[in-house]
Amino acid sequence: MFDQILGLPAHPLIIHFAVVLTPLLVVVAVAYALLPRVRPYVAWAVVLLALAAPAAVFAAKESGESLKEARFGTAEGEMAARISAHESFATPLLTSALGLGAVALLLVYATHPARDSVGRDRFGRPVTMVLAVLTVALAAVCASYVFQSGDSGARAVWS
């Protein structure tokens, strides 16, 4: 399923979704967490990106495994080391993207006004603060892994 798209290897095509959507999730989630006045304007983007970015990372991970098996299963030496280094970031990136997505969704739910309480956080201010801090922390971790994954992949291809 993640092997080819129109006869081309799927991984180089699919990674572009992860490379664009994951940093967008990072930026929008941090803005949502730190800037309460922009929340009404970016809540929809947080929700969509919290669902789409982890899905894109999952597809990139699966297509990368398929590409490795189909084209680089017998790679040795420096090329195998570069592929292995790149591959080592896949699971941490997926885990951090899933975590960021889940916490960002919880933050949106917690801060979205309930019908019976105008302007109040659904679970109270302390819970909202914890979710905001977790969002920023997971965004930093996710940004680090997306950079490292992209950098190691580019080095594997172009070095």
Q: Sheet with the most strands?
A: 2 strands, antiparallel
Mean pLDDT over the full residue set: 91
Proportion of residues in helical segments = over 70%
Report the principal-axis shape: elongated
Plain-language structure description:
With about 160 residues, the chain is an all-alpha fold. Helix content is about 80%, strand content about 5%. It has five helices and two strands, in the order ββααααα. It has a two-stranded antiparallel ribbon with strand order 1-2. α1 (about 10-35) runs antiparallel to α2 (about 40-70), α1 (about 10-35) packs antiparallel against α5 (about 125-159) and α3 (about 75-85) runs antiparallel to α5 (about 125-159). The radius of gyration is 18 Å and the shape is elongated.
Short description:
Helices cover 79% and strands 3% of the residues.
Secondary-structure map:
Layout: E1 4-5, E2 8-9, H1 10-34, H2 39-71, H3 77-87, H4 90-111, H5 125-158
Antiparallel strand pairs: 1-2
What keywords describe this structure?
159 residues; mainly alpha; two-stranded antiparallel sheet; 5 helices; transmembrane; DUF2231_TM
